[in-house]
TrEMBL record:
GO molecular function list: carbohydrate derivative binding; DNA binding; DNA-binding transcription factor activity
Pfam hit, one: HTH_6
All residue ranges annotated as the HTH rpiR-type domain in the record: 6-82
Full protein name: Transcriptional regulator, RpiR family
GO biological process terms, semicolon-separated: carbohydrate derivative metabolic process
InterPro entries in alphabetical order: Homeodomain-like_sf, HTH_RpiR, RpiR-like, SIS_dom, SIS_dom_sf, WH-like_DNA-bd_sf
Length: 279
C-alpha cells in the first residue's frame, strides 16, 4: 500500500512506532479529531495537542504531506468520498438539531429532484416490466433488500441480486428490454460498478439508477436517474432520504396495481396466518 492511496489515519498507524513522543501526542489528537481536521490550521493543531508548531510540521512531513493545507484538502476529499472520519467524542452529546436540519434538507432535495414525471416513469417500469431485479452492493444492499421486500407485496417476479454464491452475470443472462433493473449505487462502490451498469444497459434492460451525486457519472446508462443526498453532520453517511425514496416508489407501485395488489396481499396474509410466521 503506497502513501498516495493511504488516508491519514492509515499513515499514522503505519508510522506510529517511529514517531517521537511529541509527534505521537499530535498524532493522537489528529486521530481523535479526524472529523475536524479539514478546518484546523497547523497552529491550531499544535495548540490543541499541546506541542510546538515545528512538531506538527515534522509529523506532516513524516506522513507524506507538504503542509497543513495539504492535510486539510486530504481530509475534505476523504469525507466527500464517504470515508468515515472521526465522529462524536466519547461522552459527548450529538447535535440533534443540526442532524435534523441536514436530514430534512436531504429529503427535500431528493423529492424535489424526483418530481412527478420521474416518479411516473419509474413507477411504470416497476409495474409493467416482466420482472424487476434489484441490485445493491456494499452499503446499498440494505436499501435493495428493503425495496425488493416492499415491491414483492404488489407484484411477482421481483428478484434481489446477487444471490449468495452467485455472480451477477448469472442473474442477467435472460434479462432483456421486457425487464427492469433497479441499481443502487451509493459512494464507495465496488470497482466493477461501471462495467455492471454498462453491461446491463447494453442488453437493452432499462435501468433505474439510485445513488448520491457521485453516481451521476453513470446516469447515461440509466433509463431513470434518481439522486439521493446522503451528506451528514456526523462521520457516517445518512441513508434516510434513500429509504424514504424506497417507500415512495414501493407505495406508488402498490397504488398503480390496486386490484392485483389486494389479491396478492390477501394471498400472502393467508399464508402468513396458515404458517404462523408472525405474532
Amino acid at each position: 500500500m503506497t502513501t498516495e492511496i493511504m488516508n491519514i489515519g492509515q499513515r499514522i498507524d503505519r508510522s506510529y512506532g517511529e514517531l517521537s513522543p511529541q509527534e505521537q501526542r499530535a498524532a493522537d489528537f489528529i486521530l481523535d479529531h479526524l472529523s475536524d481536521l479539514a478546518v484546523y490550521s497547523g497552529t491550531e493543531l499544535a495548540q490543541r495537542s499541546g506541542v510546538s508548531k515545528a512538531t506538527v510540521s515534522r509529523l506532516f512531513r513524516r506522513l507524506g504531506f507538504e503542509n497543513a493545507q495539504e492535510v486539510r484538502e486530504h481530509a475534505r476529499s476523504l469525507r466527500s468520498s464517504g470515508v468515515p472520519v472521526g465522529g462524536i467524542a466519547p461522552g459527548a452529546s450529538a447535535d440533534l438539531s443540526a442532524h435534523l436540519v441536514r436530514e430534512v434538507e436531504n429529503l427535500r432535495r431528493c423529492l424535489d429532484a424526483l418530481g412527478p414525471e420521474r416518479l411516473e416513469q419509474t413507477t411504470s417500469l416497476l409495474v409493467r416490466s416482466r420482472s424487476v431485479t434489484v441490485v445493491g452492493l456494499r452499503n446499498s444492499y440494505a436499501l435493495a433488500l428493503h425495496l425488493r421486500e416492499q415491491l414483492a407485496q404488489s407484484r411477482a417476479g421481483v428478484h434481489l441480486a446477487p444471490q449468495p454464491g452467485q455472480t451477477l452475470a448469472e442473474e442477467f443472462a435472460d434479462r432483456d428490454a421486457r425487464d427492469a433493473v433497479v441499481l443502487f449505487g451509493f459512494r464507495r462502490r465496488p470497482a466493477g460498478f461501471g462495467a455492471l451498469i454498462a453491461g446491463v444497459a447494453a442488453r437493452g434492460v432499462p435501468v433505474i439508477l439510485i445513488g448520491d451525486a457521485s453516481a451521476r457519472r453513470y446516469a447515461e446508462f440509466a433509463a431513470v436517474w434518481l439522486e439521493c443526498p446522503i451528506d451528514s453532520v456526523s462521520a457516517l453517511d445518512s441513508y434516510a432520504s434513500a429509504m424514504s425514496l424506497v417507500n415512495v416508489l414501493a407505495s406508488n407501485a402498490l397504488a398503480a396495481r390496486t386490484r392485483e395488489s389486494r389479491t396478492r396481499i390477501a394471498a400472502i396474509n393467508g399464508l402468513l396466518d396458515g404458517l404462523g410466521e408472525l405474532e
